[in-house]
Amino acid sequence: YRLVVRDAGTLQILQLYTCLDQIQYIEWSSDSLFILCAMYKRGIVQVWSLEQPDWHCKIDEGSAGLVASCWSPDGRHILNTTEFHLRITVWSLCTKSVSYIKYPKACQQGLAFTKDGRYMAVAERRDCKDFISIFVCSDWQLLRHFDTETQDLFGIEWAPNGCVLAVWDTCLEYKILLYSLDGRLLSTYQAYEWSLGIKSIAWSPSSQFLAIGSYDEKVRILNHVTWKKITEFEHPATVANAKTIVYKEVEKSPSAETQRLSFPPTRALANSLFSTQSKYDISQVPVSLQYIKPAADRANPKVGIGMLAFSSDNCFLATKNDNIPNAVWIWDIQKLKLSVVLEQLCAVQSFQWDPRQPRLAVCTGNSKVYLWSPAGCVSVQVPVEGDFQIVSLSWHSSGDSMALLSKENFCVCYLERDEV
Amino acid sequence: FVAMGDWKTVTVPVLSSDSKNIFQCTSENKISPPSMNSQVLHLTLPSSKSMHSFFSAFCTEENIEQSISYLDAELTTLGFPSIYAESKGKELNLISVINCMNELLALQNKNLRAQEEVEMQHLKLGSDMDHLQNCYAKLKEQLELSKREIVGLQERDRQLQSKNRNLHQLLKNEKDEVQKLQNIISSRATQYNHDMKRKEREYNKLKERLHQLVMSKKDKKIAMEVLNYVGRANGKRGAWRTDKTEARNEEEMYKVLLSDYEQRQKQLLVENAELKKVLQQMKKEIISLLPPQKQKPKERSEDGLVLSDPEEDIGELNKENMWELSCETVREQLTNSIRKQWRMLKNHVETLDNQVSRVYSGALNEKDVISREDHELETEKLELEIQQCKEMIKTQQQLLQQQLMSPCDDDTTLLLQDCYLLEERERLQEEWRLFREQKKNFEKERRSFTEAAIRLGLERKAFEEDRGAWLKQQFLSMSTDYKHSENVTAPSAFLGSNLTDDAYLLGSDQDNRLVKSTSQQRKPHCMLSGPVSAERCQTPQYITRNSYSAASKKPAGDSKPNLWVESGKEETE
C-alpha cells in the first residue's frame, strides 16, 4: 500500500509514503504540493505533502462510504462523494469548515470544473428531475441553480473558455443542451430520435467546436456561433476517398539470423522471437476495415464512437468507432474531412494527443506504442523483457515524454526533440 | 339496202387497223376514175386480213350509185360537204371526194391517237391500281401487326400497373407498420419512464432511510484528522460568505461572460473585415475582366448625375471602408452587386465558350484548308491593324517629345506647363470675367443707390427744417411749459417723430431698431437719456452686422437700408 513519488526526468525515487489500505485513486493537487490517495473500500482519503513529508492528513468518511474523491481547483479542498451518491462533502485543508452538496447525480461525469478553476458545475437529481448547480470555487457559494430538460442526465462538461456548459442525456435519448455560465439555455441539439444517442463528446481547445460521437457511428460537429451542426463524419467499413492515407500495421518478419543461433538462446534473441516487430505500410484505397457487429440484444453495445479527442492545436480530431475497434480515424478540422486512418493489428485501447504538438500516441494492449504526426507514423517497441501490455498512456505536459502503463508495471518513454 | 346496214356495223372496227388500205384505195381511185365500178377497193396488200372482203363487200359493180349516195348521206350527216357535183346528178365531185377522204383520214388519225392515249392512260391506271392494291394489302398487314402489338403492350402495361399498385400497397403497408412500431416504441418509452420514475422514488426513499439509520448511530468516525491546517494556495485568508461576496461573484461571472463575448465579437469583426476586403477585390477584378460594352447602356439609361453601377458601388464601398459601416443594407448591396457581376462574368465566359466551340465545330465541319485560310486572313488583318496603331503611337510620341524637348528657356517651359492647364485657366478667366461684370453692376447699383440716398437725405433735411420751424412756432404759441416740455418731450418727440416717420417707410422690427440708430448716427449730439445711450453702444455693432445682411438680402430694396449699408461699410473699412 505504498505511494512512490519519482522524479519525472530521472525516475529517481523522491518520496515514499505508506497508506492504510489499497489505493484506488491518486491525484495531484493543482499546485503539485499535495497528493491525495483514495481508498474506497475503507472509505478513507489520505493526503500527503511533498514539501513536508511529516505532514499527514486523513479524511475518514466512516459509514457514509466513499465512491469518488477529487481535488478542488485551488488545491486546498477535497470533494468526496459518499456511497450511493448521497452527498458530496467538501473538506477544507485550510479551515475547519465542511460543506455538503445534497442530491448529487449518480452519473459518470457529474462534477465538472472550469479550466481556470473558478466555477464548478454539479449535476443533481431531485424528485426524478435533473438540476445543475454552479458554485464559485473560491468560497463555495451557490451561483446558479437551474433544471435541465433531460430525461436522465448522463454527463456535463465545460467548454475550455469556461462560458458554456454542455449537458447531455442518457444514451436512450440523443439530446445535448448548451447552457451559458449564468444558467441560460443557449441551444438544444437533437440529431435523431429513438435510436441510441450520444456516446462521447469533446470540446475543441479553442471552444469553437463541439464534437459529438454517437451510437450511429457518426461524429457531428457543432459550431460555437450558432450551435448548429456544420458537418458530420461517417465511419464506414470501407474507406474509399482517394485523398485519405491509410496506414496499416503489418508485422515485420523477424530477421532470422540462423547462423548466429546459439544455445542457450540469449535474452535478446528470446525477446525478439517472442515480440514481433511491426511497421506501417500505406494501403491503397479503397480499403476495407474489419467491421464487428455485436449482438443487438445486449445492453451497452460496443458500437458507435467511443473515443474522441481534439489535438491541442485545434487542427485534428482523433476518433475511434467501436464497430471497427482496430482503427483510429484522424480528421483534419481545417478542411473538415478524413485525413488519415490507422489500422492496427489489435484493438485500440486508448489514445492521447501530445499537449504541445499534433502528435497522437496510441496503444493497443501489446508492448508497442504507436505515434502518428502529420509527418508520418511509427511503431515503437518497448524494449522490455517479457510481456508488457500497455493498457493506458499519459503524456507529460511538456510533450517530451509519456508514461506507459501496463497492469503491473509502467515505463516512461522519452521523445527527442528535433533540433532544427 | 339491208346489206348497207350490215356494213355499217362492221366498218367501225375496220377503221382502227388499216389506214394503209385506205391509202391504197385512194390511189386506186385516182388512177382509174372511170373504171370505179370495177376496181374500186381492190386490195393488193400482202397483209390484209379479212378487210379485203369488207372493202369489196360494201361496193360492188351493181350498187355503185347506191353506195355513193349512201356515202354522200353519211358524209353530209357527219358535216362534210357533199361529194356530188353541183347538179344533183350522178357525177362525183372528185375534189370534194378527195377532201372528204382527206378529212376522213385526218379524223381517223386523230381518233387513232386518241385511242392510243386512252389506252396508255388505261394501262397507267391499271398499273396504278395494282400498285395501290399492293400498298393497301401491305398496309393492311401492317395494321394487323400493329394492332397485335398494341394488344401486347396494353397487356404489359396492365401487368406493370398492377405490379405498381401492389408495390404501392406494400409501401403503404410498410409505412403503416413503421408508424405503428414508432407508436409502440413511444408508448413503451413513456411507460418505461414512468416505471423508472417510480423505482427511482422508491430507491430515494430507501437511500434516505438507510442514511438515517446509518447516521443515527452517531458515527464519530466521520472526521478529518490533520496535523496542521495548511495555508491557502494564494496566501490569502478565507473570506466569509456574505451578500457582498454574492454580488461580487455575480459580477465576476458576468465579467467573464462579457469578456468572452467581446473577444468573440472582435474575432468575428476581423474576419468580416477581411472577407469584405476580399469580396471587394474580387468585385474589382471581375469588373475589370468584363467587357465595358455591357455597362454602357446602363449609363445611357440613367441620368447624367447618377454614376454607372460599378463606379457607384466602388465609391460607396470605398466610403464604407473608411467608416467601417456594417449595416444590413450595405452588406446586402455588396453581396448583391458581387452576385450580379459574377453572373455577368459567367454569361460572358459562357458566350466565349460557345463561340469557341462554334468556331471549333465549324472548323471541323469544313475542310481544314478553308478554315486555315480564314484564320490567316484574320491574323493578317489584325497584324495590319497592330502596325497601324503602333505607327500612330510612334508619331504621337514623337510629337509629344518635340513639344517637350524643343523649348529651352524657362518662359516657354512655363508656358508649356501652363498650356497643360489651359483648360482650367480658360475656365478661371471666364469666371473672372463674369465676376468683374457682376462687380461692375454692383458698383453701378451702389452708385445709384447712394445718389438716391443723398437726395433723400437732402429732402429729409429740408423736411426736418420745415418741421422744426413749424414746431417752434407751435411751442412759441403755447408759451407756458416751454423749456420743460422741450427737455422732456423734445427728445421723445424727436424719437417719436423719427419713429413715426421712419416706421412707415420701413416695416420690420429690424428696421425699427435701425431707425433708432439712424437718429443716433445722424445726430450724435442729441441729448438722450441713459438707457437709450446704452442702446447706442450696442446697436452700432448690430448695425454693421445687419447692414451687411441687409445688403445681401435686399440689394435693390429701400433706400434706408442701403444708407446704413454704406455707413456700415465705411465704419468697417
From TrEMBL, chain A:
InterPro entries: Centrosome-WD_assoc, WD40/YVTN_repeat-like_dom_sf, WD40_rpt. GO terms for cellular component: microtubule organizing center; MWP complex. It comes from the Eukaryota. This is WD repeat-containing protein WRAP73. The lineage of its organism: Eukaryota, Metazoa, Chordata, Craniata, Vertebrata. SUPFAM superfamilies: Tricorn protease domain 2. It comes from Chlamydotis macqueenii.
From TrEMBL, chain B:
Transmembrane segments: none annotated. Residues 546-573 are annotated as: Disordered. GO terms for cellular component: adherens junction; centriolar satellite; ciliary basal body. It is found in: Cell junction, Adherens junction; Cytoplasm, Cytoskeleton, Microtubule organizing center, Centrosome, Centriolar satellite. The lineage of its organism: Eukaryota, Metazoa, Chordata, Craniata, Vertebrata. Its main location: other. PANTHER family: AFADIN- AND ALPHA-ACTININ-BINDING PROTEIN. It comes from Chlamydotis macqueenii (Macqueen's bustard). Belongs to the ADIP family. The keyword Coiled coil applies. This is Afadin-and alpha-actinin-binding protein. Keywords: Cell adhesion, Cell junction, Coiled coil, Cytoplasm, Cytoskeleton. InterPro entries: Adhesion_Centrosome_assoc, Afadin/alpha-actinin-bd. It comes from the Eukaryota. Residues 97-216, 258-285, 372-399 form a coiled coil.
